[in-house]
Amino acid sequence: MAIQNPPVSQTKSFSTVFLIEMWERFGFYGMQVLMVTYMVKKLGFAEADSNLVWGAAAALIYATPAIGGWIGDKFLGTRRTMLTGAVVLMIGYAMLWVPTNNAIFLYLALGVIVLGNGLFKPNAGNLVRKIYEGDEVKIDSAFTIYYMAVNVGSTISMLLTPWIRDYVGEHYGDALGWHTAFGVCSIGLILGLINYFFMRHTLAHIGSTPDETRPPVKNVLGVLVGGLAIIGVSALILQNQTVAQWCVYIAGVVILGIFAYLIRSVEPGERAGLVAALVLTVQTIAFFIFYQQMSTSLNLFAQRNVDLSFDLFGIHLLTWIPEQFQSLNAIWIVILSPILVWLYNTLGRHGKDFSVAAKFALGFVAVAAGFFMYGLGAHSAVDGKISSWYMVWGYGAYSLGEILVSGLGLAMIARYVPARMGGFMMGAYYVAVGVAQYMGSVVANYAAIPDNITDPLQSLPVYTSLFNKLGFVGVGCTVVAVLMLPLMRKLSLDHALADVQPVPPVHNEDY
């Protein structure tokens, strides 16, 4: 009689995905926090151009997961594709470590990062979905904790890489400072891969069908050739903003077409869930237009119009580097996520948890409050610079909204989308996010400051005008989300009823 290995707990399996995701996000956000200012200060890009290049890169980074999810489902396996993506990302960040300020080399490195993220992101999320499949009470909490993993890693890296850039730059030269900071992102992925190697057994029973056998050589070669093509095409798109715009528009149409096709072709019992997923995906697109401001307009606002000194009751506490303000987003999410998990679990045990749609509506309320906070700070600005504490509270409100909308976006896909298309639809969701990221960069350019304006008193009203307008847009999104609640309740009920299937009779030939 064979000896059975003890079953692996959900917590251990989840921890393995949690930790590699944490290190992957360490690398990504450590790079992101510097990228726009790197293009402006080292490559000589205008603010508008740097916003759009990064917007196009972000769109590609979030678009390729549609392909990566398909590869994980059908060709290499979910676990194997996630691991491959982590290795490719490590290589992409290592390329940024190379001390050159050649723009073409930057585009190629970003192309490698685009490919790596496409392979990693949907399959990591799909593994979490598979770990908690069928457990409706735990799935929102699991994805909220999973989202916190993003922000544990990114908190550290967004504080660390600007400091490394300045420290190394001061002692060994400005150019070396930038590239050393990017190199730290690659080291983060190396640590994540080492950790995964020692914990990989906890995921041995989780994955898709291709994970169970060695992949055919033709599948491996196909992914390799396709991956090189994605790198090359991405580099070309980043050099041509007209092409980038058309790619974004086409991607948006394709996503809507995919949803329309699936809604028409799936079984009637699955249709309500897909319609609900479509409604919430459209709301997610709206949210990520706000989100993209963090690395573009809010980042550049901190460079020009924020007092970098943190003072409390007249006592100086610390002074931040402008890019480090982006870490406030991650810090708040780490603080707020456990509180929301406790709240979800407590309400869930009593059958009173809010619906995902209601959480989305509350999220837009918080996002609107956050952007109004930056505008409010302008009223007490000194010499064109607002207090750093307005950034703290603005990011706090905005981050609460992010947890309620973006943090539950993956849970929404896991809840409403049929399991057989989980990886692909995770990827399609990220394509929608990518479209929104580019649109967010276009919006950020309404506050792009010309090179000849250096006076904070001139740039302050430009930025705060944009932030106040975004606050009012957030109010509008709230109203729309609230009006959609009755429809979402009906769709969720229909989806839940469709999931209750009669148990088929057992026949002797089944044994």
Please outline what is shown here.
By secondary structure, this protein is mainly α.
CATH architecture title? Up-down Bundle
Number-wise, the strands total 2
Largest sheet composition: 2 strands, antiparallel
Broad structural category: mainly alpha
Order of helical and strand elements: HHHHHHHHHHHEEHHHHHHH
Strands side by side in the biggest sheet: 1-2
Q: State the end-to-end CA separation.
A: 20 Å
Helix segment count?
Answer: 18
The pLDDT mean sits at 84
CATH fold-level assignment: Growth Hormone, Chain: A
Unreliable stretches (pLDDT < 50, length at least 5) are 1-5, 501-511
Percent of residues in β-strands: under 5%
Q: Helical proportion?
A: over 70%
Gross morphology is: globular
The level 1 CATH classification is: Mainly Alpha
User: CATH-wise, what's the superfamily?
Assistant: MFS general substrate transporter like domains
Number of structural units classed as domains: 1
- Rounded to the nearest angstrom, the radius of gyration is 23 Å
Walk me through this protein's architecture:
- Residues 1-489 form the Major facilitator superfamily (MFS) profile domain.
- The chain is built from 18 helices and 2 strands.
- The chain has a single domain (10-206, 216-495), classed as MFS general substrate transporter like domains (Growth Hormone, Chain: A, Up-down Bundle), CATH 1.20.1250.20.
- With 511 residues, it is mainly α.
- The chain has helices at 10-41, 47-63, 65-74, 78-97, 103-131, 136-172, 174-199, 217-239, 241-265, 268-291, 297-305, 327-349, 356-377, 388-405, 409-416, 422-444, 456-483, 485-499, and strands at residues 309-312, 315-319.
- β1 and β2 form a beta hairpin.
- α4 packs antiparallel against α7.
- Helices cover 76% and strands 2% of the residues.
- The radius of gyration is 23 Å and the shape is globular.
- The chain has a two-stranded antiparallel sheet with strand order 1-2.
